[in-house]
Amino acid sequence: MSEVKLFAMFVESIQLNIDNFLVEELTEMQKEIIDEATFIFKENIVGDIKSFGGNIKKNEEKYNELLKHAEEELKLEKYKEIKKHLKDYLKKLPELIIKTCGAKIPVKEFPWVDIIFRTVPRIIYDENVKLLDRPIAYYGEIKCFLGRTTLYGKIKDQEPLFAPFTGNLDLGGYKLDSTAKEPKSEIFSYVNAIINSFDSAITKSQLAKYHEEFSRHGDPVCDFFMKEDELKESLSNLTSAYESGRTKSDTAVCGIAVPLPSDKTTLVIIIDESNDNNRYAKCFEAQLKFSAAACNAPVPMMGATPVQGQQTPGTVSTPGGQELKVWSAEELAEQAQSRMTSQPDMPVWTEEELAKQASERGTGLPDGIDMWTEEELVDLAKQRSGGGLNIPEWEDQELPECKNCGYALRSGWEKCPACETPVGEEFPEKEEEISEQPSEESSEEPEESEE
CB–CB of 237/271 below 8 Å? Predict the structure, then answer.
């Protein structure tokens, strides 16, 4: 494993939470930083500034526990090769904590009710351990819901750009407490996790992907920002991570707008890493322009076609890429309530009225449907009992018979249809045969007498 990865693994393992060391009492150095950060819009401050700064003396017990945990981690065999550098890191921790400070500033005539300033010092490892204490950030919540997380960043040898962010930010395992009542911008650990996500490979890849695969075009919000010349000029004055030399990556994120659905606001964060004395003015101007533009950005229409590979807010994607709309419990309750109030007036009948209508309708059969009596049904049953053919029943009649074959003859027939014997003709031969039969019987009788 590389030394850089080992260093990052150690830093993550000791779980340094700067907000555990923040107090309201400032050192002289911290006061000077806060004065410089607030002087540029002093006339717009309408209340008391709430400042905070890192302090080890007032949190000595927490600091000793942190050091104890770090020393135990340092004993592991895997850190043997960079043990010296890790000790240098622990020596610089007090300076990192002390140089962390900020202020919540109530303002007027701005897109935010409060704007927050803070320093963003970092300890980095690049052959040697260094403390970078110049980066600063301004951030605040605007009362506009942007609808999608949007990045602003720079790619080396390319024009700066805005890009939509798909999915969840890489907050390094940080979980926001859903029960917290204070504004998200005032939760130091949450904002700190977002700022740290600027260096995540996931975040930077979103910027590069939109530049390379989508030619910087297709997202309505980003397209709107790219047409704002003053906004682009202001943000281009920011010094990015690769321009300051803090990172060797050719891609850097300088700003972000994060929608907060539960509050229906958008958190806008801008960071500058320059060493210039006017970095406060540059960073604040970029924050102001970005926030104002976000308030005027188009709201994504329901059912709008997103850029391929992107997911619209409030949806989930199936494995096949199909987007399905998702509603929260509150949205469903609102829709149900609105539908109840918008229902048309429908008549209501009493039980007596329904009974009366039923009797008036008679059989209740629709028009065009025949109804049979019981007698008619019996007749139909009789007709169908003959195999489905309507054959009349046979009536006995006195009909003459053919003298030859005995077939029943109808009146008016001249010949028998069976043997073609003329009707009424006599056959004496048959009479002779009949007369001969007794003689045969009589001839047998003597034989019986002989016996």
Answer: no
